[in-house]
Amino acid sequence: MHLKASTLLTLGLAASGAVAAPQRRACTPKSPFVTVKDGKFQLKGKDFYFAGSNAYYFPFTGVKRHLRPHRSPQYGGEGAATEVVFQRWDNGKPTISIEGFDKVVDAAEKTGIKLIVALTNNWADYGGMDMYTVNLGGKYHDDFYRLPSSRSTSRPTSRSSSPATRTPRHHGLGARQRAPLRRRRHPQPPRSDDCTVELMTEWIDEMSSFIKTLDTNHLVTWGGEGGFNIESDDWAYNGADGGDFDHELSLPNIDFGVFHSYPDWWSKTVEWTNQWIRDHAASGRKAGKPVVHEEYGWMTDQARLDTLGQTRNETRLEAIGGWQQISFEEKLSDMYWQYGYSEYSFGRNHNDGFTIYLDDDEAQTLVYENAARINSLNGA
């Protein structure tokens, strides 16, 4: 499986429940690190724009290790979490086992692909933040950000020397957010009455600063879905989801921002999403930092009908293609949800309703033509 050099994948370590950074062998980097200069990504001293995708399932593919978490909620609607676990808990103490992740990083190094690696997941599937709150005595979902035991345990414990593992990230709070995998979303502990934007921002500041004490090579972002915190009657703009995009982007040890777009889940329109993209691009210019449209998707007609009981007039080519055009005009790198491949030994990977398979006709426009267009920003 080979993707263009401009491609960047976000890897779902979030799906594992593992928070510790990969404890990898020392090695000589096979490719340079991505950096940020003058509000842009750079690679080898030149501006670097990329068209990428998301593949949360990569660590599970071809991994034969069978471990089950102890004293943790029974998560994992995709079937993989009952077979592959990166962190095991016994009597409140975690043990890390990440052979599957190492395989993905090795493959990325060989093909020149850069990865965004999620340190943990806001959502309960595959463990996520609630793995920590349950095992460390927390009561509320947001105790992950509050309890000293959770904050110390969830800190990365070692640095990675691979330029492929580009960016640890963290998911934000989820008052109104909807996760992209969710036909079978698992319940999570309730949100407390003291779950504030300030709590989230302070935690992002602390963790990003700590990561930089371990590793100055990799870029860091916080993985929120992009919620603003301004006066508005729209939950995505008024801080209701726990986010404050502009303030979080301004933190000194945050290198770039990310935002997501799932109008199907959020009961938003295509036109609303068009403006959402432009607003985040404007925030990036104001802060002088890159911003990535990190996850975005528009359901297939059948998935929308089956899951939400709704129909929409816009096709995927119209909706997703339009968002990609706006990202290109705004000079934003983007990463569609999610990468679909049909030639695994087991056939196609799971289709969550958003998956774009490379051998389907729509991929010519939404994957290959988009990658070529973004490549043109690099002078390719």
Overall CATH architecture:
Alpha-Beta Barrel
Major sheet = 7 strands, parallel
Number of helices: 11
> How many E strands?
14
Largest beta sheet: what is the strand line-up?
A: 9-8-1-5-12-11-10
Number of domains: 1
Which runs of at least 5 residues are low in confidence (pLDDT < 50)?
1-7, 11-28, 63-82, 166-184
* The CATH C-level class name: Alpha Beta
CATH topology: TIM Barrel
Mean pLDDT: 81
Helix content: 25-40%
Structural class determined from secondary elements: alpha/beta
Q: Based on Cα principal axes, name the global outline.
A: globular
Write the H/E string, N to C. EEEEEEEHEHHHEHHEHHEHHEEEH
- The value of Rg in angstroms is 19 Å
What do you see in this structure?
The radius of gyration is 19 Å and the shape is globular. α8 packs parallel to α10 and α10 runs parallel beside α11. It has one domain (about 10-375): Alpha-Beta Barrel (TIM Barrel), CATH 3.20.20. It is an alpha/beta fold. The two termini are about 20 Å apart. The protein contains 11 helices and 14 strands. This is mannan endo-1,4-beta-mannosidase. It holds the Pfam family GH5_mannosidase. It is an enzyme of class 3 (hydrolase).
